[in-house]
Amino acid sequence: MSLVLALLSAAVLREPLGVWQHWAALRETPGPRCFAVAQPLRRDGTTDRRGGFALVAARQGATRAPSLLFHLSRPRGEGAPLTLVIGERRFALVGDRESPRAADAETDRAIVGAMRGAAAMTLTTLDAAGRPLSDTYPLAGAATAIDAAQLGCAGR
Fold first, then answer.
1. CA 126, 137, 24 angle in degrees (round to 5)?
2. Which of 24, 65, 97, 130 lies 20 to 30 Å from 34, alpha-carbon distance?
3. 84 pairs with which residues across the strands?
4. Is 149 in a helix, a strand, or coil?
């Protein structure tokens, strides 16, 4: 997975916790911080290497609620709505032109719960030129990577 290699080459030390299908779990130090990450797929099933990703950060403490963050494969248009579709569910996201996220912890939890029972999720918006933009992520392996990230930083 090229995203894992790119993340590992950064100045921060990132230790792989495992790779499941299209998802990887990593522990980052100093911190530690742990997260599950994946890149979107193109329509032909190959990995989209334009820089887009979905990241589910493990959180410690009383709530242990994960936090979701995306990086779009292309910048979105000014004010274009951000919608995440998982199965039959739709979630409105917030964020700047490149980094959508859930508006609150309750939405983060609902999204992660929906991810556990679906085959794919698609983030849709309009790009800066007004063209449709859809980043699709397969969810096979996502639940295991999210759990591995949570366990990877538990008690640290």
1. 135
2. 97
3. 91, 123
4. helix
What are the structure tokens assigned to 145, written together? 């990577």
- 65 Cβ contact partners less than 8 Å away, ≥ 6 residues apart: 59, 105, 108, 109
Q: Across 12-131, where does the E strand assignment appear?
A: 13-20, 23-29, 33-38, 53-57, 67-71, 82-86, 89-95, 100-101, 120-126
DSSP state for residue 60 in the 8-state scheme: -
Determine the distance from the C-alpha atom of residue 46 to the mean position of all C-alpha atoms in its chain, rounded to a whole number: 17
Question: What does each of the 156 residues of the chain score in pLDDT, given as a tens digit?
Answer: 455 445 445 557 888 999 999 999 999 887 778 999 999 998 888 787 888 999 999 876 666 678 999 999 999 999 999 999 999 999 999 999 999 999 999 999 999 999 999 999 999 999 999 999 999 999 999 999 999 999 988 765
